[in-house]
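Wait, can you check?
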Amino acid sequence: MTVRYIGVIFMTALLLARLPVSNAKAGDSRSHFVPPNGWNEISHSNKDDRQETLYLPEGQTPGNWSQMITLIKLKDNSEEAMHSLVDQTMRQAMLLCKEPPLTRGRFRNGTGLEDGYIAETACDKTGADINDKNPALNRELLRIFVDQRKDGIIMLKYNWRHARISARKRFDDPAQLNSFSNVIEDLR
């Protein structure tokens, strides 16, 4: 890992650690969350001990998007729940890939968090799996940050896809890493 990449991860972790999660309005069990400018809440579900909210940029739909933010909050703050959430998320992302995806995971050093994960996966589909009707589905990059807190676990998922630009090439692209960092900064 380069020093610059570690710096981006460190700053991202620090910014997300400041994300307020207990300022919900009376009667609203959702975490206080302000999406980046130009993004809208598309859906929210609250099932048992799990809340999930989906955000998309204006003009994009769940069936046709280039960027997506998903915020997941679990009431269970156990180590097992966090590992299960990360494993399930990464497995789902890897199902999209015909060849082994590029992945990175687990980051703890210097975050000041009890425990935290930053994980990433990128894949470009090939062969019979290529979607000709929606080429953007063929290249996808996922970055997640998971924070274990006293009142539960919060996960931020940032998905990016593009019809012409390789997700694998974007994996180490400083501009893409900066974009992820900016999303986190906008969430404060």
About this structure: The domain at 3-186 is CATH 3.40.1000 (Protein Transport Mog1p; Chain A). The beta strands are 39-47, 50-57, 67-74, 102-104, 116-124, 139-149, 152-161. The first strand starts at residue 39 and ends at 47.
